Amino acid sequence: MDDTGRELLSLRGAFLSRQVYDTFTRYALGQRRKLDADVRTTGAPRWKHAMHLLRLLTSARDLLRTGELRIDVGDEREPLLAVKRGEIPWPEVEARMARLAAQTEEALRRTALPPEPDRARVAGFLFRARRDSARQADAYDEVVQGVVRAGGVGQG
Fold it and tell me: In whole angstroms, what is the distance from residue 44 CA to residue 26 CA?
């Protein structure tokens, strides 16, 4: 990993804020509406989508609780796969979703995340990364410059 990658990793917290609640829950609500429509039209949800909605709600809750986004579902892997296989009755899956939604709201009330991301730190990083990238010459840049100097661009 180069210096840019290390700096980006060190800035992870600057991207996070309480706004994750709105982002995650807005998406979750849309997914829930699709699941409800599936149940109305076919009598059953798309189980894979139900599993992913549970993962999404769990991620939102845990992100608000810890300030870290975790992808690994850990001990929840098997229960989630059981949902995906359709082994859990829909009312039980709905109850899990409702519990996770309530836990996510509680996590929002208690979170240590700031109200907004640190836009100044993120913008500063992006400016430096773009500037440093533009200053670096590589073989591709030489090929492009050669084509431009030879008049091969815009000729036609």
Answer: 23
Instruction: Provide the residue type at 15 as one letter.
Output: F
The model carries a pTM of: 0.78
Which among 59, 66, 53, 64 has a CA at the least distance from the CA of 27? Answer: 53
Half-sphere exposure of 122 (CA within 13 A, CB side): 10
pLDDT in tens, 44-91: 999 999 999 999 999 999 999 999 988 888 999 999 999 999 999 999
**pLDDT tens across 5-14, in order?**
899 999 999 9
* Distance of alpha carbon 106 from alpha carbon 10, whole angstroms: 28
